[in-house]
Records
---
Amino acid sequence: MTRWLVTGGGGMLASDLVRVLDGADVRAPSRAELDITDEAAVDEAVNWADVVVNCAAWTAVDDAETHEEAALKVNAPVRLAETAGRKLVHLSTDYVFSGEGAEPWPEDAPTGPINAYGRTKLAGERAVLAHHGTVVRTAWLYGAHGPSFVRTMTRLERSHDFVNVVADQHGQPTWTHDLARQIVDLVNSGARGVFHGTNSGATTWHGLAQEVFRLLGADPERVRPVTSEAFPRPAPRPKNSVLAHGAWASAGLKPMRDWREALHRAWPEL
């Protein structure tokens, strides 16, 4: 039986990976149980596993602006990349791109992160690829097991007459359960390289919020569009985070379903 190590246990994606791998031999240690910056602990954990899926990450985007060195240690786990090598699937992000232009970013597009978080994630990609591991970039995640934009909109609908939401950032809301299944299928295919693990289609944060309101039976016009300047943040956000999915064909897999279909399917558990 294949032994799976899923780092970042307890997080949204790791939790869904454990669920998808039901019946398999899986270990999903939390940050407290496995510090991926601890070389000895990483070696011991990785040596047990046949497949390693690294969901552990520094995800506090704004805090990374003033703590880039600390974020780099987590987001570019060099020892994990060295030890796991070809059996490693490492989760990365749309933030490795500049966000310029209007076309979806293909897997081989030039990178150009515009904030510290993106730089640290790109460093992680380079370490993994240097040791022949696989990178799966994802974005705009939501799921049953953690905080997300979808949950925030659900809460605000109950407490606010109107909600202002950014309408000039484009991306792909992605259900962690769909992504977990795609990762397992990718590993089983034997393919390696760089893949974009997002649901298909595209929208804005405003469009996603309106869809959440519809699912709640609320008037979507209560969601008002604003520009990014309405919510200044320490770390700049890419305007275009839409990822292309051409690489899945090399693994004999189809891209993940449309984001609206996924959101509607996920809704009962959100």
---
Amino acid sequence: MKYTSFFKLFLFAFICVLMAASCTTKEGPMGANGLNGENGENGINGIDGKDGTDGKDGVDGNVSCLVCHTQAGMDALRALYNYSGHNAGETTSYAGGRASCSPCHSNELFLNSLNQAEGVAAVNIAYPTRISCSTCHANHQSLEDDISAPMTTVAPVTAIADATVTLDFGNASNLCANCHQSRRGYQYYQAIDSVKINGIMTKVPDGMVAINSSHAGPHHGPQANTLLGDGAMITGTIATHTSVGCTGCHMGTVDGATGGHSFKPSLANCNKCHSGATDFNINGKRTAFDERLEAIAEALVTAGALGKDEDTGEYHPAVSIVTDAEFEAFWHYMYLYEDHSHGAHNPPHFENLLTSAETALGL
């Protein structure tokens, strides 16, 4: 009995030891992962394109600039410009500061006038500077190959003397036309009803016209008008020289102190059309023009329309009242004289004006 109980106890203890031993045994290896779920299929990648051909290298920026902006080149331009009337300081000193004069006699007011809002009056300026490079030339808009000198304006110009007229050469000569045009038309003088003569206000009779100032006339450079046949009391024709404009003759071939930025026509440039010419008196036409204009001036002195400075031999308008015919001759004289081309700018038109003046004065 006792023995049986002891045996049962021993067996129980042995089973417990075995169970404890089995609980401390290490885990076996992890089983394999299950299969992933299916995703949608990706598209097939496209084939890479071929590399493009390398572009051609551009010209070195300095090469483009140095077409014009070498020290030697700029010095040559400045040397020519020194011969130009545009470089004359006196034209700025006596007129450049006045509002009515400065748009053509100073760098500042010329540029201001190009950008001035309509109806805004010009103003006097204290320290005007002369016409210079920046008056005519603007900044480059780009620096690509084949760049040319940029201009401040090449737009057609509304005539000052007659707003119904457009001065247009279709090229850079339009820049010149801003200033080289009449400031007054003959209609201004025909509308004067009284004028002060010897301190006395005098009424202008019918059929007569007043010359009210020693500065009367187109004042003072009507070249754009004469080239286009505008501004005289007789409608003019367009001359052969009109097609080349101002720059074609005045900035052509450089020859010594003429041509280029001197703005003085060079004989070498004229020879392109007038081959064999040895001076500007081609076929004696300049001499003939000057002689006829001188005879008209003397007749206008007799009529009282002009005065003559005996020391210099120069003529100037005289304050007076003259007949319609005498005024027409006076106006055409001033128009031709102040053109300063000695008949070259528009020969057919000038021939008609000379004949008209001679007929009016009985020459």
---
Amino acid sequence: MMNRWLVTGAGGMLGRDLVRVLEALNEPVLAATRQDLDITDRFSVRAVVSRYRPTAIVNCAAWTRFHEAETSEAEAHLINGRGARELATICGDRSIRLVHLSTDYVFDGASRRPYAESAATGPINAYGRTKLAGEQAVLELLPDDGTIVRTAWLYGRHGTNFLRKMVRLEQTHKTVDVVDDQWGQPTWSVDLAQQIVALVRHGASGVFHGTSSGETTWYDFARMIFRLLGADPGRIRPVRSDQIAGGELRPRYTVLGHAAWREVGLTPIRHWSAALERSFPLLADEEW
């Protein structure tokens, strides 16, 4: 059965790619940007839902300003926590499936093996705490129709992201300092968008990790970007997290496991390096 989709936060990197994927599949979708819909306003959300009647909502709306969340945690919580609760409440009232995007930062980074979907959470920063609050609200209110998709290290055509930053710095700097003691999984936003569609079509609920397979550091990620640009990867210089502003607030190891995908019969996202090689020709002609 074809779904009617509502995508909140549709002006962001993932939201825009998700809308594009859905349109290519000829699936009906309402793209609601931050200006179109404030997810913390229950009356506005109810009005949009009543008018459009979606069968699936994907919540890409989020406070993502990591450093500002430390001094504005209450404001960040309004969007990441309360906003998710408002959406979950409305979805529960109307039997709508909700996919809520979360983050690897719900973990403390103390592990040295991939975090399972069921692993204990323990965020060490305000951003992670507010996103965890959103997760808890969705799982509490929608035990059957709520899905959490944790993602990390997203890059793509739109918005601010590490790939775009490295391309700009390659053009303007002789050398670039990048941390080499934080481990994660670079994830192409298009891959994640396609994975979300597959997940909803499958009717799965619970917690899933929407990241690429494999693992790497920001340093090695940057080196591969330079190689794909035809630049000397030796221009990337390794530095420690404690040598950059706010580095101590970021978990060191947030590699995520993908067992939940296999348990429901779906294939996890491909290896991060294969995705980067595939995406790069499509992104290289953009205005960086």
